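Table 4 source record.
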Amino acid sequence: MNPRWLLLLLFSAGVWSVPIDRKGSPSEAQPVEEEKQEENLDTGLYYDRYLREVIEVLETDPHFREKLQTANTEDIKSGRLSKELDLVGHHVRTRLDELKRQEMSRLRMLLKAKLDSTNTQSLQIDHASLLKQFEHLDPHNQNTFEAKDLELLISTATKDLENYDAERHEEFKRYEMLKEHERREYLKGLDQEKREKEEKRMQELKEKHRQHPKVNSPGSVAQLREVWEETDGLDPHEFNPKTFFKLHDTNGDGVLDEQELEALFTKELEKVYNPKNEEDDMMEMEEERLRMREHVMKNVDANKDRLVTMEEFLKSTEKKEFNNQSEWETLDDTKPVYTEEELQRFEVELRDKEEELKRRAESLRQEQELLQERGKALEAQRREYQQAVLEMSQRQNEQAAEKQPPPGPHGELQFQQEQFEDQEVKTPVEQPAEGQNHLPAEPPQNLPSHN
């Protein structure tokens, strides 16, 4: 799965370089590992997963895959390839529709979370920034994936990736300013004696970092021969540019993408940076790698498509710069990436953000106190309710106890007797008629015998 436009979109960021060590025959390539590395790469785009899934689905269609293999960079970037979407199979369109609906749902969820987390009373909502989140698809049609969606996805990804290097430089600048700001704040908190000792220690680390072997200019014959000898294990006197290109075209697609180029600089970077050393900053190493890659691309990539062909590479070896023997100027040898004025503005920005965080923290503290007071009131009401229920239960128990027989061995019999007497009193007794004797009649005399 290596069409040119996939390389353009997914490898243009090229920030995750992997050292290549293939001492021996070029045939010892490991396609399985390379494919795994390719799948694990991340463009850094916020819609990276959506982009990958769309590409994977499109490549399941034989017609579209064929068009991808034969398309050139201009066809892709101009959007002409998007028209081929009308010819893909129904199952492919159905899956693309599903992917778009999922992406729309994800964006709406992120947008809602961002709005919910924004304090609209103290911060203004950047509506332009919010709308930019939907640039890679057509938000007016939320249910189906059309040619316009593919065109927007390609154009947005291409534009974002072209600006990615500039954003990385800006991010590194902010990192360096933050590091300097923290250094100054740390020294301010020390007394004079400790401050002088710490400043001396920092200066010694800085000088130690500067003590490194010569760094060859990236893309020069000296730098490439060093890779040819130490990485590829070949005789430096037999250096051959064409063979070198094929050796480091690790996926065999006929071009060197930015990741493959950055892998060539590993040996040079190891001369300056070691993750085990306190004085070496790995963030600075990645910035150095980016600077090297940009330098080579500027001199080699003739059509500016962020890919180096065999023809472009061989032509670059004929230039005067290829035989340049001068040492590469590292970040330590160049002027700082920021000015003192930029640092001051950055510190003002930090203070403003800190104040905003304090205001939010105070607001949250007040809300917490209010919730605690409400919780106490609810707890008091709960206890009153429990007390009322308890008293009601006690009264019911007392009333039931009054109707129960008194305790004791004869209590039950006495209770039954009292009930019987009550019933006897209440039962009406038949009274004799007036003039009749109240005594029962005597039994009759002289009854015949039955003997």
